[in-house]
C-alpha cells in the first residue's frame, strides 16, 4: 500500500505544470507641442479654459488654435482606443459565444492564459477536450482489463490495481494515492458446493439440479439449507407477493422462483420474500427478459447470473462507519443482510421447477417464456406429491484488503472543492461491460484532462479520478470511503459521475441522476452527436421520438447504481450515464460470457467509439462544473418534488381532518423552501459573480442542498440511506405516502401515532433545508 496525501491535502502551487504567463505589455509615448500667440493688445489671457482663450484671438489665430485643439482631441481618442483594445486583450470577464473565461491565474481571476500567454475561452476548451479524447485507447484498455476474472483480494485484482496506479502516475497528476480498507466479503465455499435437489419424503435425492449452478452465487446470502414447495412470484416485487397472499396461498416456508429484472435488485427480491415468510429464493433469467440463444448474442439456457443480496451498500459488518484497519469493529451488522438463503439458477432449472405448478392462470404481465411451462398461481412439490425441493448455500465470509486508487488535478481557485469521476474495477467474471468499459473511460478522461492542463487549462475546482474496489459486493469500496469522510464531503464534493456499465448498447441514453444535475444534462446533450444517428444531437434525436427528453433520458438513481450511495447516503449530487438498447439488451452482465469479444460483437465493433461518446458527455459536464464561477446546479429542483408530495397528501385531507390532523405544517415548510431557493437564485443573478469571496459563499450553499435532505432524525448506522426523497426507510416521502394510502385501502392497518411521527420528522427535515438554504438566521422567513 502506498501512503499518499490525505483528502484535505492542499498545495499552494501545482507541481509539474507549466505556469501560464501573462500577456506581454509594450509602452509608447507621444509628445505634442503647441505655442499660443499672445494678442496684440497685450491683454492678459484669461485662465478659464481653451474656449475663452480662442474667442479672444484674431480670426487666423483662432483657426490655428482650433486646429491644435482638434489634433489634441484626435490624439487623445486614438490613445484611448488603443488602450481599450490592449485592455480588452487581457480582460478578465470578456466573453465569447460560450460565456465566461476559465480562471487559471491567481493574478487574473476570471481569465485563463495558455503557456503562450493567450486567453482561452470555454468554447476552445470544449474543442480541446474533443481533440484529446480517443477511442483506440478505450478499446485496448477494455481488452487488457477483461482478460480474466479479477475479484477483490485475488492476484489478478492486485495486479490490475497496480497497473491503474502506474497509469495515473505516468500522467503526472498532482497527487496519486491509495485508500485501503479491510472489508468482510462473502465467497462460495472451497470445501462444500452449493446444492439444489429434488427429494422425497424420506430425504432421498430424486434429482440433482446442482451442476449448472456451481460458478454462480449470491453474495451475502443467508447460509444453510431450506426445504419446501415451490411458488412462482414473477419479479419478486412487493406487489407480486401481495397478489399471491390475496389469493390465499400459503407461502410460509416455500421456495420462491423469481425472474431477473423488473426494476428490482436481487437484494430487494430476497427482502420481499423474507418479509412474506418464504424460506428461500431461486432467481433465474427468463427468456422474456434476457435473450437465451448464445448464437444470436444471448445467454445459453443453462446460464445463471450472480449478484449480491445485501439490501444496502458497503461492508455490512461495519454499517455507517469506515472499515479502516485501525477501527475497533463493534459486534454489529447491517439490517439489510438476509437470513434466508438465495441462489441463482438457470432457465433450464426454472423450467423443471415450475412445470408442475397447478392453479389459476397468472395475471397479465406475469407470463414469461419458459418452454413447456404454464404460468400458474399455485404451489409445486407439495405434500400431496410427496416431493420437496431442497437448497443448500454454504458461502463463507472472508476478510479482504481493498484498495481504492485515486488521482487528482488541483483546482486553481477552489482547490478544496472536488468534482469526482469513478468506475468499478473488480469483477467476479471477465467483466468487459461491467467494469472494463468504465475503467477504460476513467483512464481516458484522466489522460485527456491531464493533456489539457499541459496545454494551458487549469480548472477552478479540483478533479478526482477514482478506481473503486469491491463494487460487485454492493459498492463496498466507494461506500467505505464515503463513510470515512461523511462529516465533510457535503462541504467538499461538488458532484460524482459514475462510469459503471456505461456502454450496453448504442440506441438510447439513460442518465440516472440527482435532480440537481438535470439542467447540466440538458446543456450537454444539445452539443453531443447521437452515436447511432449522425447529424443529430442526442437532444434532437430524443425530441424527434415524440416524448420530452426528460421523460426518455432522465431516470432516478437506484439501489445498485454506482452513484446511489453518494446521494442517498452522503448527500452528494450524483449521476450514472449509460447507453442501452431496449430491443436487444446486453445479457451477459455478471456472467462468464461478459468478454471484450462478445461486447464488440454485440456492438458491431463500435465499443471504442461509444466509450468515447460517454467520455465526451461526462467530460463536457465536468468541464462546465470546473469552469463556472457559480456552480450550475438547480437549487429549485426539489421545490417541484415537494409540491407533488403535498398534492398527494392533500388528497387525504378529509380522512386526516376527521382525525384532527392538519397538513398546514408541511405546506408551510414547502413554501419556505421554495421561497429560499428562489431568493438564492435571484440573489446570485443580481450579484457580481466575479467577486471570488461572494462566489465561494454562494457555491458552498449550493453544494449543501443535497445534504439538507438527509434526515437528521435517523441513524446512519441503522438507516444509512437517509435522503428523504431518494433514500429507503420509514423517514422517506415514499414511506409516508404509502402509509397514508392505508387510510383507504386497509384503514385498520393505519397507525396514527406512527404517522404523526413520520409527518413531524419529515416536515422538520424540509423546514431545516429551507432554513439552511436561506443562509443567515436573520434572512430566514419562518412562517410558523
TrEMBL record:
Q: Where is this region: Disordered?
A: 1-30
Q: Where are the transmembrane segments?
A: 64-87
A Pfam family that this protein carries is PA
Domain of life where this protein originates: Eukaryota
A cellular component term from Gene Ontology for this protein is: external side of plasma membrane
Q: How does it sit in the membrane?
A: Single-pass type II membrane protein
Q: What sequence ranges are listed for the domain Peptidase M28?
A: 404-602
UniProt lists compositionally biased (Gly residues) regions at 13-25
Keywords, ordered alphabetically = Membrane, Transmembrane, Transmembrane helix
Its subcellular locations are: Cell membrane
Positions of the PA domain? 228-294
What CDD domains does the database record attribute to this sequence?
M28_TfR
Q: Which family does it belong to?
A: Belongs to the peptidase M28 family. M28B subfamily.
Which InterPro entries does the annotation name?
A: PA_dom_sf, PA_domain, Peptidase_M28, Peptidase_M28B, TFR-like_dimer_dom_sf
Q: What is this protein called?
A: Transferrin receptor 2
Choose any GO biological process term that the UniProt entry carries and state it.
endocytic iron import into cell
